[in-house]
Amino acid sequence: MSKKRGLSLQEKREQILQIFYESQDFFLLRELEKLGPRKGVISQTVKDVVQSLVDDDLVFKDKIGTSVYFWSLPSRAGNQLRQVRLKLEADYEATKKQRCELQLQKESLKVGREESDEREMALTDLNKLENQHRALKEELQLYADNDPATLEAMGSACGIAHQAINRWTDNIFALQQWCSNNFPEAKERLEHAYKEVGITEDLDYVD
Fold first, then answer.
1. Number of domains making up the chain
2. 181 backbone dihedrals φ, ψ, rounded to 5°
3. Is the pLDDT of residue 205 over 80?
4. Which of 1, 15, 63, 190 could anchor a disulfide with 39, C-beta 3.0 to 4.6 Å?
């Protein structure tokens, strides 16, 4: 004799809903776990089945004190299902309308694109021109380093960098002079500190 097939999730959901519909009462989870096996739903799976029904708004729960009660009425579940059905029907009609519009657009785009020797030749010429355009762009990229605009931009950037270097050099000299004037007794310590940060006697302006 073959082993009896267990209930599917949908079948378990339907059986748990029957518990609510037949009694039209409120239940604690532990009560549902005791009633579930009478409907063929093992107690270990009742919690997950009930939660799936709660997630779909087919079963509702309320916390009273420290206890959580679950309940569901056929009328309320029916309203939920009717709302889902109405939404699905509206989505179906919208999708069907969009399909018709796309079909019309497809047909209109075919006008002037009928298969012909002339069209094939035009497409071949277009493909050749696209390949030539791509090759020219790649060739231009090879000469980008010699582009006058690029060279001018590099020269401008070098000029700005040159000015910045000399400006910072001037600032360093000014700071050294201020330290020497205000702390003459710390000359050796200052010179050591300069060397620590890379400021040597070779420091000078850039021509």
1. 2
2. -70, -35
3. no
4. 15
